[in-house]
Amino acid sequence: MSARWTERLTADGSSTLAHADHGETFHSMSGAWTQARERYARECRLRERALELAPSGTRALRLLDVGTGLGFNLAAALEALADTGVALEATSLERDRDLLVHARAAPREPADLERWHAPVRLALGSALASHGAESVPLANGRLRLRLGDARASLAGLPEGLLFDAVFLDPFSPRVEPELWSRDFLAAVARRMAPGSRLSTYSAATEVRAGLLAAGLRVGRGARVGEKREGTLASPDLELPSLDPRVLRRLGARVGASGGEPRFGAQAGDPRGSIP
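Above: the chain's sequence. Below: its structure in token form.
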């Protein structure tokens, strides 16, 4: 293992890594695999969204994965879509190539994580070998991996490509402030299809205000492990309500910055595809 990371066992038996420079782990110590399943796949309602798409003839659910990390969130997405008849088309943004080399090198426990993480490791290996030039097979779907600054990677995606779900999972605003900036959150919001959801572990007022300023509805994410709540966002869906006092603070924060919260659906669904 690289000296840049230290392996840590989490409460559900799955392991994560702690970064040597700033000490943050890639996952919650309450359970890395639990966080991937509950904070991201479940909170974005991936399975339900797939079952909504299937009758319309849509054969793939498009996921934007900000912060590939060890690939656990992608594994949770594969698990959620199992037996729905809808494939996963994932676009994953990651800065650290060396991390992905490590992530694909070792099997993961427990067994249910390994079942879904194995195809992710295989896809990451193929994507690294192709230098991110094209999408690669991911189980019965596809993975597009973009390495480097996520801001540039997002801007460089095909015009008109919209996503059914967004996993916003970079390091904290203290460590990666650029990926929580209002400009980046607005760029993410522009990539969200009608009926989509975004989930993140952060419940910071400024993050929520940035999502509101981007024109998204913002709601309270469920408790996962020791984290009391996260944040959900959508262009048009009803979400679990935030505390009224929190809403007042958010309105004041957005208004003070010169923005104004907007609510409601975006028109149209010019869904692009993974080439």
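The beta strands are 5-9, 15-19, 60-66, 87-94, 136-138, 141-147, 163-168, 192-200, 217-220, 231-234.
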